[in-house]
Amino acid sequence: MKKSVKKKKEKKGLLAILFIPLLVIGLYMITHQGATQIKEKLTQPIPEKYIPIYKAAEKKYGVPWYVLAAHHRVESKFSTMNPMVSPVGAEGPMQFMPCTFVGWKHPSCSGKGKGNIPEKDKTNPTLIKKYGGYGVDADGDGKADPFDDADAIFSAANYLAKNGAANGHLKKAIYSYNHSDKYVLEVMYYMNIYKNEYNKKYSF
Q: Does the keyword section mention Transmembrane (predicted)?
């Protein structure tokens, strides 16, 4: 009877020893897969259709394309945010305040920059130039539209370039875009990822 009990215990002990490596392997696979999924979720690959727009804006304004991609990711998750207007009134894929886009010289502009600008004036390149805004008509359709991807990205490049990004002062330019240290860190996080992972691939 004692021998039978002893054998059963030995058998259970052997099964436990064999089970431990399987448990360790299983936990590793689960955590590794989870970490990979989290990383992919955090980085979010750049949609291919935007690369030529970033590169064209870089060529015109001298702002590295991956900086624009990082801003686009942070501001609207590559134009997937819905609605495309923030609670404080920032608009479009690159989240411009109307007064920054059209210009702070507009009579209605004050405070945080929401203003009271008629819709037809928001996209008028002539008025934007008059009021000193950063809005750009990138596709030549006669409108500088903050809700149009190309116009918004070129406008962001215009803004960042005039605030130091074209001369290498990236942190200063990013901070001027949104006065938050946390925002700067977030943009630079994605900027470094896109620079390292995509720059060789899109070095045209």
A: yes
